[in-house]
Design goal:
With 150 residues, this protein is mainly alpha-helical. The protein has a single domain, classed as Metal-dependent hydrolases (TIM Barrel, Alpha-Beta Barrel), CATH 3.20.20.140. Helix content is 56%, strand content 5%. The protein contains eight helices and three strands. It has a three-stranded parallel β-sheet.
Length: 150
């Protein structure tokens, strides 16, 4: 296996998201939904630097404004990474995600348990956010529809 083979995935997520911001795509398409893997890669950690250095991009707002419109998942083998993604993006922009089979989902669940989210926050993370972000019918409306079909 080549050194650095796996680090590229996190960097690629970050570089692609930065290009969407700096190129003006996020500005031109305010309704665009971008879901980043791996807790947003390095993006949340570089937010201040992007704002400081992003003034020359000619955007109407600072890059972090566009970044905060993105969504992410909980794929991080580090509790602090998951916590920071929730703190940076907000609980309503983070969804439970796994990197199975590359990473054991039980580890992610344990790390999320360690964070100590409230039940409403857990419901958002594990269910509600995916329904809203992906435009899925909610379980209750799906049940109502199936009962109406009978």
């Amino acid at each position: 296996m080549k050194p650095g083979r796996f680090i590229g995935r996190v960097v690629e997520v970050s570089a692609a998201a930065m290009r969407l911001v700096y190129s003006g795509v996020m500005e031109r398409h305010p309704g665009l939904k971008i879901i980043l893997s791996h807790t947003g890669g390095t993006l949340p950690y570089q937010s201040g630097r992007m704002d400081k250095n992003g003034r020359r991009a000619g955007l109407e707002q600072e890059p972090s404004v566009y970044m905060h419109r993105m969504f992410t998942d909980t794929v991080s083998p580090h509790r602090a990474g998951i916590e920071f993604a929730i703190a940076y993006y907000g609980i309503d922009r983070v969804m439970y995600g796994t990197d199975y089979p590359c990473w054991d989902p039980a580890t992610c669940l344990r790390l999320i348990d360690e964070i100590g989210l409230s039940e409403p926050e857990r419901k958002r993370l594990f269910r509600d956010n995916a329904i809203e972000i992906l435009g899925l019918p909610s379980l209750s409306s799906a049940n109502k529809q199936s009962h109406q079909d009978i």
